[in-house]
């Protein structure tokens, strides 16, 4: 394991049986609270894209906003919030996406992206990939050119990375945990 993986792993807290029995919740609030770990995670997420022309970072509510805001600053890009339905004040586009049990909907503002703009998608963690897949569909519907999707944590056993790669999206993750 690399130093980076060790540092990040040490900064992430695991909470068993949250929000329901059998789930190991990977809590990044402890990472966000540690200046070095937070900075390191953001630096590593943006590293391959420094020097590229990135128009916007799209962050998935809510932890994707924190990482995405910092990445946007670092890359001198704009930021787009992808939100749960009913939260955005102007005209929106909406997509349904699958959760472990059932479906939900997410939205972004119709005028958040211009056709052909280059976008990086970000969230804290990818599990089944249902949430990120919904965000990819929404962004592409608005004409975005998705350069990559970035996550601090991958749960590879749940297949999310594969799902995005099958859609032709390049995926960057920093650490992975076995199981779910
Ligand atoms: P999925 O759509 O299955 O890829 O789930 C990804 C979304 O659910 C992300 O926004 C994560 O923050 C959250 N999530 C899923 N599983 C976990 C977990 N084990 N620990 C923390 N967050 C999770």
Topology at a glance:
Layout: H1 3-11, E1 13-16, E2 24-27, H2 29-32, H3 35-46, E3 56-60, H4 63-75, E4 78-84, E5 92-98, E6 103-109, E7 118-126, H5 130-141, E8 145-154, H6 160-166, E9 171-176
Parallel strand pairs: 3-4, 3-7, 7-8, 8-9
Antiparallel strand pairs: 1-2, 4-6, 5-6
Helix pairs in contact: 3-4
Adenosine monophosphate (AMP) binds at residues 23-26, 60, 63, 123-132, 160.
Brief account:
With 180 residues, the protein is an alpha/beta fold. The chain has helices at residues 3-11, 29-32, 35-46, 63-75, 130-141, 160-166; strands at 13-16, 24-27, 56-60, 78-84, 92-98, 103-109, 118-126, 145-154, 171-176. The protein has a domain at 52-176: 3-Layer(aba) Sandwich (Rossmann fold), CATH 3.40.50.
